Amino acid sequence: MTDFFKGIPEIRYEGPDSDNEFAFRHYNPDEMVMGKRMEEHLRFAAAWWHSFAWEGGDPFGGRTFDRPWFDDSMASAKLKADVAFDMFRILDVPFFCFHDVDVRPEGATFAETTRNLEEIVDHIGTHMESAKTKLLWGTANLFSHRRFMSGAATNPDPEVFAFSAATIKTCMDATHKLGGANYVLWGGREGYETLLNTDLKRERQQAGRMLSMVVDYAKKIGYDGQILIEPKPQEPTKHQYDYDVATVYGFLKEFGLENDVKVNIEQGHAILAGHSFEHELALASALGIFGSIDMNRNDYQSGWDTDQFPNNVPETAMAYLEVLKAGGFKTGGTNFDSKLRRQSLDPEDLILGHVGGMDVCARGLKAAAAILEDGGFEAAREARYAGWNESFGKDLLQSDLSSIYDQVAKGGIDPQPRSGRQERLENLINRFV
Are 268 and 393 within one domain? Predict the structure, then answer.
């Protein structure tokens, strides 16, 4: 144990009437929800990057946090890992997620960087031998370093493509070694700023080839975790090839990967794409590519991905409603891709940000389960489409235009508008949230 979180107790469930800020009021990991423990439903994960690697900067100012591991030494990387597992223990989270650059310093050469990663992975593995917390997913940071300024897989320079492929291999090896349940492709700069200097077709083909190599390599090393893509719009590239769930699905279909790759959906990215979080979740489920989620929120007065801890129970309930309808998480979970505000300097702030987010998710999950168990919401939606379950509706989908024309021309078919009853359904949902 380190002394970074000195004096902070392990967080335990005390119930909604507790006035102890270092306690869960709603997240009770052992509470049964729809026949399964709450912890198993939610599968919480802490993000290594925002929790331990982010320095508190923004476009107008630099670092505000003062952490003892903020340098490029292996000793500091190991201290950061030690502190991370202290936090995981305090919060009792079952999972964590990381990028390679979050856990290891950059070396003078690719070989040295790889050795650094391998050494720190062994150090993390030692912690995991005695800790409850496991790895939900790993990924490679192919966007921060200046070499990736024009993308990684989509870069016009084949040497950058090669460097990126090699980096992904090292991160897949690390994820496999640590028993990661998933591996994520997070295309931070896989897009373009302007068509004036971009061969869009070529770049898409490069991205498709890279993803195919990832799938092939996973099979080669016997990695049975799920490969995930995280959709993200206009961040930071003006046009992203992985804009939203629908765009990613079209990309997967183009390269024949729709059965191998699923999506990790972030709330903030859904909003920036002009969708609701639940829309993206429902679409991913309908397309058969739902995998995992990053749970955060945006500031709706800002046009950027602010990565704040969730605090809106109705929004969270609608999200978990779609997760439950999709059958729940298989290999995925709820990763807090959430960071402190740059003025929240104290270790206590980091713990309490997670406590609040976990409580909000717990309330959302229980509300979603109550909605499903009540049955009224789903029954109303099914009633709206009931005609398609009758012989007339079924026959229409097996017919052709001429036959349908003959049927309508005979008379007797005179459709009248029917209310969608949106306000009634909104009121119904509000009973539970």
Answer: no
Sign of dihedral through CA atoms 94, 100, 106, 110?
positive
Q: How far is residue 381 CA from its own chain's centroid?
A: 28
Catalytic residue among 26, 99, 275, 279: 99
336 CB burial (10 A radius; 0-12, 13-18, 19+)? buried
Residue ranges of the binding site: 230, 266, 269, 294, 305, 307, 337
Domain count, the chain: 2
Question: Is 102 marked active-site?
Answer: yes
Domain residues for 89? Answer: 12-374
Sign of CA dihedral 305, 309, 311, 315: positive
Angle at 307 between CA 309 and CA 362, to 5 degrees: 30
4 inside domain: no
As a whole number of Å, the end-to-end CA separation of the chain is 39
Looking at the structure, tell me whether residues 421 and 286 fall in a common domain.
no
In whole angstroms, give the CA distance from residue 263 to residue 293: 8
What are the pLDDT digits (tens) for 130-151?
A: 999 999 999 999 999 999 999 9
Do 181 and 107 sit in the same domain of this protein?
Answer: yes
Q: Say if residue 275 is in the same domain as residue 175.
A: yes
Domain co-membership, 257 together with 403: no
CB 142 within 8 A of CB 166: no
Same domain, 308 and 409: no
Q: With beta carbons less than 8 A apart as the criterion, state whether 75 and 125 touch.
A: no
* CATH number of the domain enclosing 67: 3.20.20.150
pLDDT tens-place string over residues 254-271: 999 999 999 999 999 999
Tokens of 330: 């298989």
Active-site residue (options: 92, 102, 242, 359): 102
**Residue 337 and residue 208 in one domain:** yes
Instruction: Clarify whether 123 is annotated catalytic.
Output: no
Matching residue, tokens 């720190």:
120
Residue 24 lies in a domain: yes
- Determine if the pTM surpasses 0.85: yes
- Output the known binding site for Mg(2+): 230, 266, 269, 294, 305, 307, 337
